[in-house]
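Here is one chain, start to finish.
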Amino acid sequence: MEKPVITRRFISQGRVQGVGYRWFVQKTARQLGLKGEVRNLPDGTVETIARGSEAALNLLKKSLKEGPPLALVEQVLEQTISTEKEYHHFEVSY
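Its structure:
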């Protein structure tokens, strides 16, 4: 039986821009087999949209809270969303 595909939106708050956070997220998401995108938002946060199994998304959230060495993640907000957008891999968006 195939696992259901879920789409989640994460907002990472703290020192998450200019520290390699998006590249860290991309690498982690690809290792977990997730599809989606990550981008900086104008308010200084980072938005991650990821699609995959619940187990993989939970592992991603744990990594988002840790971040790369120079990041200081204060909080990661999470919500399950629905989207018509098709993701074929995991990319950094601008």
